[in-house]
Design a protein that fits this description.
The chain has 446 residues and is of the alpha+beta class. Helix content is 35%, strand content 13%. Helix 3 (101-104) links the parallel strand 3 and strand 4 (108-112). The structure holds glycine (GLY) and manganese (II) ion (2 copies). The site of glycine has 7 residues, from loops.
Length: 446
């Protein structure tokens, strides 16, 4: 597991930004104190085993401690924050170690062994607190009545869209780890003897991760499984014929995610050509991740470019305009161009017009597009066009009036390959986008 830490000055500058973000959010919420709860363990029904722990992202905004549960950050406007650091007396489990000066120097750290101790350790003089986090019982609220006020959360979410240099460094590292692991997964695939399960293990092992270190459940699909957008299994059997491979998998550093997709094939021919064409299309879109670009416009460019690609490859038989208008590109590419990325894979505020909580307008044709704002410097987005052969979406076209708009013989040849997605993580940087993912692959030795 990565223990990467950006330079201490970067972390200090980040905490300055986070403090300002909380000042604004607390002002909006009419609060003098924000108490941010990391979260507790969730237990299986009627059982004493717990689900893997996931921290509150607003807690991780302060601290690079994704595994620390049951702790609280207490922040009062303009003051040094307090960390109520959960260090239980427990000989059944490993307990959190001594505070690391890297982060501890920025907090008044108070070790606690129980939620009652957390309540007793709240600083004096708090008048109007809010609590941010997921509670499983009343006790965890520490007596605070205002829980997750939307006025505060909307404001914080807007602040989180702009990444600090500390955050960007973690995201570059998350991409570096992702690139190493993707390379290992691709090598396993190209042996033609690895199952989805074996490829997944090769991915994890190359960076010393276990599943819960990943930012999301990886998509590891061979052949037709590449057409299942959120394919969740790992087949243990190697297919009789290994044709294609789609892997959508990331890594994390300090709680920050990468979200990377690549598609490969073992054969030459139409599917291999389509992968190359999709890479060109995707790289063209990445170049357009510039300050001032309205993301839904870029989503529309993706569909226009896909329509042209379909015509050029012979898959589409009408004009590019007809393929667009008749919804053919949307049947072949039913998801959005991408989303914000950060502490969460589908990061916050994609539909927030402002910190007051006003919602952005959503494109009528694409209600599922996760990002409907204009882009500004130091935001990180994914760019993830795809092209899939999904029976459920194609059969109504084949049986309907628009049947002549596609070459069904070609589609039938391509169906055993499943589909293609190419996904990079891109930082808005004026008119010169920084592609964190391509840079990471380029930086690998060998
Ligand atoms: N891995 C999920 C996504 O690409 O949005
Ligand atoms: Mn992805
Ligand atoms: Mn994504």
């Amino acid at each position: 597991m990565s223990a990467f830490l950006p330079a201490p000055e970067r972390y200090a500058a980040h905490l300055h930004y986070v403090s300002n973000a909380f000042d604004k959010a607390m002002d909006r919420a009419g609060a003098d104190t924000a108490v941010v709860y990391a979260g507790g363990l969730h237990y299986y029904f009627l059982d004493d085993s717990s689900y893997p722990f996931r921290s509150n992202p607003h807690f991780l905004y302060w601290l690079p401690l994704p595994e620390l549960s049951d702790s609280y950050v207490v922040y009062r406007t303009g003051q040094k924050p307090t960390l109520l650091y959960y260090q239980p007396a427990d000989y059944w489990h490993a307990v959190p170690g001594d505070p690391d000066p890297y982060w501890a120097d920025h907090f008044d750290v108070i070790p606690i062994q129980s939620v009652a101790a957390a309540k007793a350790s709240l600083p004096d003089g708090i008048r109007s607190p809010i609590l941010l986090g997921e509670l499983q019982n009343d006790e965890q609220a520490l007596g605070i009545e205002r829980i997750n006020p939307s006025a505060g959360l909307n404001s914080l979410n807007i602040s989180r869209v702009t990444k600090t240099e500390y955050e960007l460094e973690h995201m570059r590292e998350a991409n570096r780890l992702g690139a190493i692991a993707h390379r290992a997964a691709a090598a396993a695939f190209h042996t033609k003897t690895a199952s989805e399960y074996a490829i997944h293990l090769a991915y994890l092992e190359s960076i010393g991760f276990v599943d819960n270190d990943l930012p999301y459940h990886s998509i590891v699909g061979l052949n037709e499984n590449a057409a299942v957008l959120h394919y969740q299994h790992r087949e243990r059997e190697v297919p009789a014929e290994v044709r294609s491979f789609l892997i959508d998998a990331g890594a994390r550093s300090g709680g920050y995610a990468s979200d990377i997709t690549r598609t490969y094939t073992t054969s030459d021919g139409l599917f291999a050509d389509l992968i190359k064409a999709m890479v060109r299309l995707q790289q063209g879109l990445c170049q357009r991740v510039t300050a001032g670009t309205h993301y839904p416009d870029l989503h529309e460019v993706m569909h226009r470019e896909l329509a042209k690609l379909l015509v050029d490859s012979g898959l589409g038989r009408g004009s590019a305009e007809a393929l667009l208008e008749r919804g053919i590109t949307r049947a072949l590419l039913p998801h959005g161009l991408g989303h914000y990325l950060g502490l969460q894979v589908h990061d916050v505020a994609g539909h927030l017009a402002d910190e007051k909580g006003t919602a952005t307008e959503r494109p009528e044709k694409d209600p599922n597009l996760r990002l409907t704002r204009g882009l500004a410097d130091n935001e990180v987005v994914t760019i993830e066009p795809g092209l899939y052969f999904i029976d459920m979406l194609l059969e109504p076209i084949r049986a309907g009036d628009d049947s002549e708009l596609l070459d069904w013989k070609m589609i039938d040849t391509l169906k055993p390959f499943g589909g293609i997605r190419i996904e990079d993580n891109v930082r808005v940087n004026g008119q010169t986008p920084e592609n964190l993912t391509r840079d990471a692959f380029a930086g690998l030795a060998g």
